Amino acid sequence: MLRLLYNGLLYIALPFIPLRLWWRGRREPGYRAHVAERFGSYAARAERPVIWLHAVSVGETRAAQPLVKALAARYPDHQLLLTQMTATGRATAEELYGKDALIAFLPYDYAWAAHRFIEHFRPRLGVVMETELWPNLLRAAAGHGVPVLLANARLSPKSARGYARIAALARETLADLAAVAAQSEPDADRLRALGAYDAAVTGNLKFDIVPPDEMRSRAQALRTLWGDRPVFLAASTREGEEAILLDALAARRIEGLLAVIVPRHPQRFDEVARMLERRGFAYVRRSEGRPVPADCGYVLGDSMGEMFAYYGACDIAWIGGSLLPYGAQNLIEACAMGAPVLIGPSTYNFAQAAELAIEAGAAIQVADAAGLVGEVARLVADPASRARMGEAGLAFSVAHQGATERTMRIVERLLARRGG
């Protein structure tokens, strides 16, 4: 009955999908491209056996880098197919993998569209990143004998309670997975409780991402533009957080501080610019590529794909999405670049990583924006504490690597079952 209800709701939404794509395309033109793929119709064809990996958006697409590299190295006779749901996710995939993989949108979860997708590409294996559980897609894959691995899987207590309300459908969906590679034991336990079997703990793939050398040199270039002054980075900020942060910074001025604000979503760059202008704050856009005057207190990080460079160029990094209940963005990249990390109270997307980073001395958790700015002021005045946190972050990052190889062992087992 729940599956019937789920499909019924999908069909009610069907007439509104073109309108939604058009509406989102006003700010992100990528939503108006490749629309046929959203319904399972594809022009591209693979000439080799396909391994398919799905990463819904930018974060998951970047997190997949070590796994994509390992798959390409271990199975050079296969064609990699990467799918996304968001326009920015697809643009990121094309930037990172476009020369070596097919890139496409995953269809919406209509049974007929899912079957068309599976029949068109006929993957030998599917790898779905994190929490992308689409009932009709997984049923279509299982029906065609395609094993699907849920990789880098995480499930917060809040999400688990949500799935528990549709327990029968969740159980059916999880049963269609061939295996689960969970980030942590609590994630695996919550997935098992909902009906997943063959759930192993492999760790977080994000620890295996190695900062590119280019980002280190770009960090030095950024620091030259910013000048010899303390730099506070607000990384991957979410809607509502910038205003809270700007007000807190204005209430407690820190001598000489340069605050670099990098919104999570590019469509919000201009919105944050207007926010700075309304408050009368002088700022320089990263995209201008010019030195920041000494009397200018803000930089708007309006660029994509430079987060490692931002972390490498700052003295203190706060991880966005954690002041308001968004669950936080990725703090592992900051630790990997040796940046002292501050994080707010909301961390459910990276609960274990945040807890371990705090225990390791690589991160400090704050309760609110006032506490955040207070901690920034303290660290600005204490270079030795910053150095200890940065060293702890580097050690923390190295200590938790290895998820890629553990995940690849599951991939090899699933492909061996299919005779290859």
How would you characterize the overall build of this protein?
- The protein folds into 2 domains: 196 residues, 3-Deoxy-D-manno-octulosonic-acid transferase, N-terminal domain (Rossmann fold), CATH 3.40.50; 187 residues, Rossmann fold.
- Helices cover 46% and strands 15% of the residues.
- It contains 19 helices and 14 strands.
- It has a 7-stranded parallel sheet with strand order 3-2-1-4-5-6-7, sandwiched between helices.
- Helix 4 packs across helix 19 and helix 6 crosses helix 7.
- The chain starts with a helix and ends with a helix.
The rounded Rg comes to 22 Å
Individual helix count: 19
Uncertain segments are none
Find the count of extended strands (DSSP E, 2+ residues): 14
Strand order of the largest sheet: 3-2-1-4-5-6-7
Structural class: alpha/beta
Tell me the helix content.
Answer: 40-55%
Coarse morphology = globular
Fraction of residues in β-strands: 15-25%
CATH superfamily of the largest domain: 3-Deoxy-D-manno-octulosonic-acid transferase, N-terminal domain
What number of structural domains do the residues give? 2
Key features?
420 residues; alpha/beta; Rossmann fold; 2 domains; 7-stranded parallel beta sheet; globular
Question: In a nutshell, what does this entry contain?
Answer:
By secondary structure, the chain is α/β, with parallel strands linked by helices.
